[in-house]
Amino acid sequence: MAEAGVQPTVFSYSSAILAHAKLGQAKEAERLFRRMRASGVSADTVALNAVIEAHGRAGNAHQAVAWLDRARAGEFGIELDCISYTIVISALGKQNMGQHALRLWKEIQARNISADIG
Fold first, then answer.
1. pLDDT, tens digit, for every residue of 83-114?
2. What is the pTM of this model?
3. Residue 114: which residues within 8 A CB-CB, separation 6 or more?
C-alpha cells in the first residue's frame, strides 16, 4: 500500500492483523500491531482483539492474558469490550485453564461487562 502512495488505515491494519490471527500467527499479528502504532495510526479494539485472538489460536493462553492485562493497565489507550474478554476466556478454556477462565468470568461479571459466551 505505502509503495503505491496509499497510507494504511486502522481498517487495513486491523484486517491484516485479523488474517494473521485466523492463522494463529501471533508474532506476525504483534509485529503489525507495533508497526501500526509506530506509524502513527491509532490502534482500536478490533486490532487489539485480533492480536489477543492470534495468541489464543496459537495456543498461547498466557500471552492472550498478558495482552489483556496490558490493555487493562492502559498501555494502549484502548477500551476493552466483551469480545476482548470472551477471546481470552475461550483461549483459557481450550488450554484446560478453567479455573483461570472462571476467575476472569467472575471479574467481568463484577465489573458489569457483558460477555458473549456461547
1. 999 999 999 999 999 999 999 999 888 888 76
2. 0.89
3. 82
